[in-house]
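Write out the 3D structure for:
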Amino acid sequence: MESMHEMSLAEGVIRIVEEAFARSDYRRVTAVRLEIGALSAVEPEALSFCFEAVARGTVADGARLEIEKVPGAGWCLQCSRTVPIVARYDACPHCGQYRVQPTAGAEMRVKDIEVA
């Protein structure tokens, strides 16, 4: 089931697309590419469903939503190194300590917009 979180994110993506489209001479948007971090708490399937619903009747009606997943990473304060993490509160895979500050994977951004 889609959540209100993903619905509001999809609406925000459509606003970004419409603002970018308004400054162009193109006829339609054919694809929107997003980067979604593994730690972002965004459910890609729910976001895709919501995007399709909110895109109806907009410049992005019928556009493909392409999602690139960005892996999580963090800085281990114990080891002083960047380490991969799957969840926000993962332990360092090298030393086992839980002193890891996330540095990548929490973001969601519009990477680019394909137009025709």
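Strands lie at 29-37, 64-70, 72-76, 81-85, 100-104, 108-115.
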